[in-house]
Structure formats: structure tokens, C-alpha cells
Amino acid sequence: MTMSVAWREETTQIGEVLRQSEKVLILEHEKPDGDSIGAGLGLALGMLFLGKNAILLSQDPHPSTYDFLPGRHLHIVVSDMKSEYGPFDAVVFLDCADRARAGAAVEFAKGDIVINIDHHVTNSMFGDINLVDPGASSTSELVFYLLKTMQVPITRNIAICLYTGIISDTGAFRYENTTSRTFAVASHLVDAGADPSRIANQLYECRTASFLLLLGKALQTLSLHHDGKVASVEITREMIRDAGSSFQETDGIVDYPRSIEGVEVALCFKERPDGIGVDVSFRSKCRVDVSKIAEALGGGGHPRAAGATITGSMEEAKDKVFSLLSKEQI
Amino acid sequence: MTMSVAWREETTQIGEVLRQSEKVLILEHEKPDGDSIGAGLGLALGMLFLGKNAILLSQDPHPSTYDFLPGRHLHIVVSDMKSEYGPFDAVVFLDCADRARAGAAVEFAKGDIVINIDHHVTNSMFGDINLVDPGASSTSELVFYLLKTMQVPITRNIAICLYTGIISDTGAFRYENTTSRTFAVASHLVDAGADPSRIANQLYECRTASFLLLLGKALQTLSLHHDGKVASVEITREMIRDAGSSFQETDGIVDYPRSIEGVEVALCFKERPDGIGVDVSFRSKCRVDVSKIAEALGGGGHPRAAGATITGSMEEAKDKVFSLLSKEQI
Question: What is d(CA A269, CA B101) in angstroms, rounded to the nearest whole number?
């Protein structure tokens, strides 16, 4: 397997530092996601193989979705961290564009050498050594190359962690960051023992029947507007109750109207359980900055994904949103 | 890229036959799916590159989902086929476990040599040369190796077709048939110009409103059996009509009951438009070999994905299937 020449120096340097270190602190970003967790556990397991004393630290706990990953005993949250666990010979930030991204875990980031491994284009290059490649699908992909350089064997457990990181950050090989190198790494990880269908099952095949019943009800309300460029669905409290579902399960339903061909803006109107009003989720595909529409309603978010709460009834909420949308160039 | 030694002889033989042929007929199975279509167009484009007169033939039209694929001008349906287009030097069956799987297209399968390229474990080895590997993710994966053996360059257009075939049959690298070799092939196809995010958008983000309305109706029928290990949905002709949908759009709906946590076997019962009876799609996650159940009903398929047609009413079809399932260890 060939490696980008650009990193050869960084991976070699990082490998030397880690080999010479006894105590290594690995930091994930706040609210860790699949890539941060997969890269963190994979690297921690690699350090364990080398006989290092490694701790994987994050401000927030790992979501239970990732409970199936090996190496969990190497992870602790900030509230369980003690300063006497340090000082560390090396501190590795994973998937953090800057130091602050590690949240409260930064407090413990005291070490001789700071290593920064990341794939965000906005990375501030804050490390003593920076292995930063925005062309990488994920930080897990970079950790794979680092471990290969260090000649750490990619065990089955390490492979499971890194594979999970890669599919989390690529949307299971569907996002634009998926490259031929991503597939080449996936091929190696599967050879090393990662099981694609088992891992995908763990991440994606854990819906509830009540969610599907609620989704079915929501889809019955599908309506198109603006010549098919806007699609909306609505979810009432009655629908949630009849499906035996919960308000939390409404997350992600907006992706269904978004998936219609030709739709640029998708909306999901959800009656809040507290009766205050209606939460609206906005998604867009390419052009419309939905965060501006959400902001005009007192909400916020990103250009492609935003939300707002509107007091009043479902009809009032829809009137307000469609009135704002009618002024947009969609 | 290394190749399974088991096929070296077959791919070499097939390559020699195709190079010596002037007129090649390539057959897809009835109701062609993404793998059959991707493998078919990929192979037809490869033959075109070699200056052959190649026709890709299927009983039924390609679903419009695949309209983005290159090489469509090489495909015709049986109703447009003329016997004077033949005779053919070679006839290639793709993704067909037996001759009958090509449906009415078999009538035109007259040629000096019959080549059988497939990955179904139930393949009857009906060809003069058989390139059959149940360990392959897809027929498209086998066509990739065949074209490599023949030293046909994998052009961007060929890569797009074969990549589409692979992700169709692996559920975007989520099914058990996904191997390290599948990823290695995907890596090559992306290097050759297949764009993973564009193709995934074409396949997964181009739903129709009518499909979502039909999905919504189908999900209302969701029912669980065998302590939640079996989930089923049903689709009547009336539901298809009310949703403004079509029978073709019922494909993939079985993946929704399959996605429920704890479900091992998922079923989708679909009233056929011709009134003959009910098509049943079977999916399983880990243990149950649904191809055996499908075979007991006169159908077939893979251990994790199979199908059968049952004459009679929806109730009769459900009775038959659940009666068979009650004898299974699920």
C-alpha cells in the first residue's frame, strides 16, 4: 500500500515520539462522534499493543450506539479523570480542528509533545507535529496509516474501530470525502477482521418498530410546494402517541422528504410534547441557506441543516414558514 | 491486484471467446436490478471498446433510477428485439442462476457459445463456460475481473456502471457479501473515475414522492412475529394506485422492516400487477437462509435476500409463508 509522500515525515515523526513515550493521552472532541471514537479506540489499542500506558479521554460520554466497539476500558470521561494520571509524554488530539474543540478535556492536555491528527480543512495546525490531511475521509483513515508506519499490527479489534470511524464519517461511503484510498483502507481493515455487515448492522439496523410506524404516518402527510422544490411532512402529538413512539424518534424524518429528486428544501413540522408549539426542521441540498430562514424564526443552525421553534398551532407554524419561503429564491 | 486462482481459467477462456466473437448478445435477468444492469452495461461498453457488435437485452425495461448510467444505447427490451439481429457468436447470461431467469429474452439466446457469469449459489452451471463465484459480492465484481483479464481498459463509463452494480447488490457495502475484495475493486473503480457520492445520490437521493407515499402506506401494515424476530409489511395494488406509484417502486421497501433492531427475517408481500398472485421478498440478517424458504415456494435467491411468486390472494400468500417460517429455527 502506497502512502501519500506528504505525510511520510509526519507519520514517521509521530511514530518515533509515540514509541519513545510511556504515558500517552489521547483526546477526542466534545460530543464525540463515530470517527472520533473509532480513531481514539483504534489508536489507544495500538498503544496498548506497544505496552504503553494510554488513556482515551473525552469531555462527553460515548453514545450507546458505539458500545459494541472493543477497547472501551481505555476510555474515560473528564469527570472521572484525575490529574495524577498525568503528566504525559505525549498528548494526541484526534479529529479536533483546534485545541478548544476537545472541550473540558483540554485541561488535562499537559505533555511534552502535542500531536494533532485531523482531517478538517479549518485545522489551526496547533500541534508540535501535525498530521492533517483534509483529503482524508476521516481521522480514522489517518490513524490507520500511522499505525501501519509504526508497524503496529492491525488487529481485528483495531480494524473494527477504524472501520467504524470511516463509515461514520463517510455516511457509509456515500459522502464526497470517499476516495479510492478510503476503499483501499477499508479493504485492508476487512482483511484484518472488520466485518462490514455486522458493523453496519450495529450502526444502521437498530431502528424501532415504533419509529417505522411514525415514519409511515409522517409520510402520509407529504406535500410538495414551489414546483416540487420544497417538500414537507408533519408530525402531530396524536401520531406519535398512536405509533407508540416518542418526540426523540422524530429526528431524521426530515431526511425522507429531502431525498426526493428535485427537492432543494425539506421541512418537518413536529408538535412539541410540551404543547408550546411546533419545532420545524429545515434541510437543503445545494443552494438555499436554511439557517437564515431558521434565524428569522428565532432558531439557527447550518446552511444545510437548521431548526426553529414556533409558538402556536401546526397551521400557524406552516403559515409562517411558507410565508418566509415564498420570499426565497428556491 | 491478485485474482482468485479458481477463475483464472474461466476468465481466460471467456476472454478468448469474446475476443474471437463479432456479435455478442448479453442477457440480463427479468426485472433487471442494479447489479444486472451495471454488469450488463459495463460488459457491453467493454465489448464496444473491442469493436464488437454487442446488444444488451432484457425482458423488462430498466427502472428509471438507472437512467444516469452510460451505455444505455446498447440496451434493448425483448419487444424491440428482432431475430435478424442474430445469430450471435456468443451469448452471455449475467446474474442468472439458470436460463429461465432471463425470462422471454431466452428466446433470442441462440449462439455458438453460452457464457454464464453469476454469483448465485444456486447457479445450475448451464453455460458452456461458467464464471460462477458465490463469494463475489455481485456479477459486476466478476465482470470487473473479466475485463481486467481481457486487458480492456476500465474507462470512467465502465467504472460508473460496475460501481453502481456493486453498491446495488451490497446495499452500499452493508450486506454480508461485502468482502475485502469488494472494497479493493471499488477502490480501482473510483480511481478509474466512478464518483461514490454522485452515484449514491443517484441511487438513494432520487426518490419520488409517490415512492415515499407508498412506503408510508406499507409501513402502516408493519407487523412483528416470532417474538419480534420476523417483521413483515404488505403492499396491495390499491395502495400502489392510491400513491400514484408503480410495482417497480416496491423494490427496497423490504429493507425497512429489516432495519428493526432484533429482526432476523424481513418480508414484503406485494400484489402483482398482473393479478396472478403475490410476490414475496425475503431478507435475513445473520442466521436464516431465506433462499431455502423462497425455493420451497418455487422462487430463489441468496441466503440473505430471496424472492418468490405465490399464486393466490394476499391472505393465502401470507398463510403459506408464515406456515413455512413456523418450521424454521429463527
Answer: 46
